[in-house]
Amino acid sequence: MKYSDFKEAEAYCLAQVDSKLNNRTNNQKNILARAKYFFKLLGNPQDKFKIIHIAGTSGKTSTAYYLYHLLLGHQFKTGLTVSPHVVDIRERIQLEGGLVAKEKFSKAVDFIKPSVEKMKSTKYGKISYFETVLGAAFHIFAQEKLDYVVVEAGIGGKFDATNSTRQQKLCVITKIGKDHTNRLGETLPEIASHKAGIIGEEDVVLTTGQKKEVLKVIQKEVEKKNAKLTIVKSQNIKKIKLSKKGTRFDFSHNDVSFPNLKLKTGAKYQIENANLALSSFMTLSKRDEFALDESNIRNAMKSLEIPGRFQISSYKDRDIILDAAHNPQKMKALVESLKALFPNEKFVFILPFKTASEKYLEMVALLKDIAQTLIVTRIFTAEEKVKYLELNSEMIEKRFSGIGINEYRLAKNANEAVGIALKTSKEYKIVATGSLFIASEILKIIQ
Q1: Potential cystine with 446: which of 108, 206, 315, 440 (Cβ 3.0-4.6 Å)?
Q2: Which of 360, 356, 361, 358 is nearest to 405 (CA)?
């Protein structure tokens, strides 16, 4: 049998993109039912390994990466699936610390193809790009006979394709805020009900500090499912020292403590994610009765750089910080990190003009005190078939002046935006943010 090559396999996955599949008019319960039926056709691979399931608004990917590397450091056969990816589709299917081999990815896509095609003639209809790649991931993870898989939920959680396993899980819920409101609802309790929907019968659940209205929803779901909840305390982290070279802190959770742990990143917001990941890992060790290795924990935390999350790169003698902040909650965290690491400095920001919404303008307004200038561009994402708004200079001027921003430039694409940024004074660091996709576009340019 002739297998597809990697580019053919990737193209097949992208061919499943359909912006109509997941719009709000669809019954979301049917979306999960569709995914479950698809995975059933594949032999229910998602039930063949232990799952750590992560949902939330901010910090999902980072928390997932930390847990993944902690498990790897303890010699468990472990997989990771996150979304969206930054540069390579195989970021969604990681094994043993690296991207799945191209040949293995291609063979998995060939294996799932008959089921993908069969779905089109069922009552559920065509599956999504996300479900297609997730099906390939679960198939590979099952074939590899992994001990654990760290699974980042897509949008929401309750009706998400990742919420299809029948086994007990360790559920981790990161900070919840307003995002994807067109799909999840306008209020925090509505959004929280989707995120808490990953909780299954008798699951072990951990969450970070949440607003009272959010925590109330999580607690109600925990009680309903007879699950066990731990609220991770911010006091677990003490003696924080931030620097450009990384972050140091003392960590303790229940009867376990590790002084002077180090993170490779200097991003202030990663402290909460590291706390949640470490506390979850301590809890998992008790549930599954394995010993903790302090040396491996230290090595896992200090060596990890997470793509597109305060990732500092160098290009043509300039520092470029890439960060995926795409809502006000995440942008506030980014700004706090920039101020903490580079006090009294201003920055050249590259960001996409995605929408004229109040949420977007609120996000941009957070930059005005530390921005020397904004370079506004547009991007196209094949995955979502979304072309961000055209750069209408009159409309942008009106919107930006309304929030007190007068210094900005327009660039027709990311490449031009980088060129403009490089012509600014070297005293200003360049920060690409506002979307994971802009970070992805710029990484492809500077790598």
Answers
A1: 315
A2: 361
Whether the CB-CB separation of 49 and 147 falls below 8 Å is answered with: yes
Distance CA 322, CA 307 (A): 8
311-446 fold: Protein-Tyrosine Phosphatase; Chain A (3.90.190)
CATH architecture of 6-302: 3-Layer(aba) Sandwich (3.40)
For residue 25, the model assigns a pLDDT of 38
182 sits in the region (left: phi over 0; alpha: psi -120 to 50; else beta) called alpha
Cβ proximity of 240 and 340 under 8 Å: no
Task: Give bridge partners of residue 321 from the DSSP assignment.
Answer: 312, 431
Cβ-proximal residues to 327 (8 Å cutoff; 6+ apart), any chain: 57, 58, 177, 178, 179, 359, 363
Helices (H), 256-356: 270-288, 294-302, 328-341
For the beta carbon of residue 235, count every other beta carbon within 10 angstroms: 8
Strand partners of residue 429: 347
Backbone angles phi, psi at 155, to 5 degrees: -80, 125
| β-bridge mates for residue 386, sequence order | 381
**Helix (H) or strand (E) segment spanning residue 351:** strand 347-352
> Considering the entire predicted model, what is its pTM?
0.93
Q: What is the DSSP letter of 81?
A: E
**For the chain, which residues make up each domain, given as ranges?**
6-302, 311-446
Pairing of strands 371-377, 347-352: parallel
Which stretches in the chain have pLDDT values below 70?
Answer: 1-3, 19-27, 181, 354-356, 380-392
> 103: how many CB neighbours lie within 10 A of its CB?
13
Respond yes or no on whether the N-terminal peptide bond of residue 45 is cis (omega within 30° of 0).
Answer: no
Residue 208 identity (one-letter amino acid): T
* 52 in Cβ contact with 148 (< 8 Å): yes
- Which single residue is written with the structure tokens 């969206």? 84
Length of the chain: 447
Distance CA 158, CA 170 (A): 15
What phi, psi does 13 have (nearest 5°)?
Answer: -60, -45
CA distance readout (Å), 283 to 199, 253, 356, 416? 16, 9, 43, 48
Q: Which pLDDT belongs to residue 403?
A: 86
SS3 content of the chain, % helix, strand, coil (to 5): 40, 20, 40
Q: Which of 147, 151, 141, 145 is nearest to 52 (CA)?
A: 151
Residue with token string 């506390």:
279
